[in-house]
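Repro:
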Amino acid sequence: MPTPEGPVSLIDFIARETRKPLPPELANLPHDAAVVRYRNNRGEDRAAPAGLCHVVCDNQENTLHERAIMPPHIRREQIRRYAGEYLKELRFNDICLKVSAEPERIEQKFLRVPDLEFGHGRRLSVRGTAGASQVGLDNLGRKRIDMLRDDRAGFYVKERFRRQYLILPQSVWESWGERFVGDLTRAVDDLYPEGGGYRRS
């Protein structure tokens, strides 16, 4: 790895730049450890010792995701313990930050989900309204999309689109923006053909 003093190995560079004492996973790395090379999201070359790399699974790995979710009472207790052990003496320059040892308690408020009305007088209700299709709160989202796709229901109002604007950050547009706009156009046209076509002008 190039440095102002000349090239050094990646392991030596990490050991030199890491705060002492070195954590065990760094101290125990062999000097002939394999190196993983990759590009960051700016396209720059980066490298890391393979021993410090770990497999990261996204939410598509359902079994791993479910096992990673802790019950709320365990999660809250671990947060409380972490705050008490590590967040007691936080400093920012000359300012001492104090974190409460006890979490904020918020008064519970319940929102009654209103009935949803679709085309042809069809309604969807989680509150037992007479004449409406009944659904449980846990299945409301799926039933709602089914009703929007149903020819006997569909959207409550069916009219052509007026002008709309989609604003994307330049970094998004230059990476996957075109794909995003294409996917959005196809999804809207499939769900709401009455709009007259969702296309760029």
